[in-house]
Amino acid sequence: MARLEVHNLKAYYFTSKGVVKAVDDVTFSTDESVGIAGESGSGKSTLALSILRMLQPPGRVVDGRVMLDGTDILAMDEHEFNSRIRWKKVSMVFQAAMNALDPVYRIEEQMAELLRYHAHSGSGGFGSSVGSDAYTLMSSAVKQVGLDEDVLKRYPHELSGGMKQRVIIAMALLLKPSLLIADEPTTALDVLVQAQIINLLKRLKREGLMLMLITHDLSIIAEVVDDVGIMYAGQMVEFGSIERVYREPKHPYTQALLQSIPRLRGEKRLTYIKGSPIDLLNVPKGCRFYARCPYAMDICREVDPPALDCEGGNGYVRCWLYSKH
Hints:
The chain is α/β, with parallel strands linked by helices and about 325 residues long. It has two domains: about 5-90 and about 175-320, P-loop containing nucleotide triphosphate hydrolases (Rossmann fold), CATH 3.40.50.300; about 100-175, no CATH class. It is built from ten helices and twelve strands. The protein has an eight-stranded mixed β-sheet with strand order 6-7-8-3-9-10-12-11, sandwiched between helices. The protein has a four-stranded antiparallel β-sheet with strand order 2-1-4-5. Helix 4 crosses helix 5 (about 160-175) and helix 5 (about 160-175) runs parallel beside helix 6 (about 190-205). The longest helix is centred in the middle third of the chain and has 16 residues, at about 190-205. It is globular, with a radius of gyration of 21 Å. The relative contact order is 0.14. InterPro entries: AAA+_ATPase (IPR003593), ABC_transporter-like_ATP-bd (IPR003439), ABC_transporter-like_CS (IPR017871), Oligopep_ABC_C (IPR013563), P-loop_NTPase (IPR027417). Pfam families: ABC_tran, oligo_HPY.
């Protein structure tokens, strides 16, 4: 399995109204599958796009490093990154990606275009028949996600939502990457299809694929990955193993998120987080969760907390409650 290290990553959007600090000094490292959780607007998708170097203007990465197996992939020039990393070592399933399938081309033709772009197929123009080697690769990819080979001959409108999502995952796996980033892969799917996609991701993980699962659904993260990072207002406020974070959450925001999950027995009333997230155009000094935190202290209002070690160096929390000073 690959090793992913993100060091002090900053990705900002430079708008006419000011600078939006969507990802601000994010650091984590893992050689396990990892989940990124947080409410809408916390910076989860921007983090993923930054890793894959697909952040579009007015957004751009302004600082930090992303290390994949010891290589800083942000330091590569675009040609090297595109030929060595993008889709080959790091691939991504985008949010609502199943809606991106072109309705006028068969699945086979759309997958072949990806192969041609990366010079893995010697076939002709878009829409022509593909070579036997390419067809074998495509057939293997759709079978890997639990689909029959005849799906390749179908048009998108002939497939269910779950089948289209599996096709998208197959396309992401076509060049056999070591890391797959999945951004809200179960969005807009019914409960049964969600379960099928979750089981597929779990099987891919067992087969050695490293996953970065981005979602607001903490229950999905708990079922699929090994480590988890909790994002709030552009910062990763807590990182650690699934077992530790879910059993002993440190950050007040993490605690509040977990307390808002419905329980089967319903012995406790659901809680909610008071207030609203901060405006990332006008980030206040101090802790970004200060105004909503039930444990806020004077220092929280004045000084942004550093990442404080927990789990013996394998995790951290950004909260003054755990400072020795």
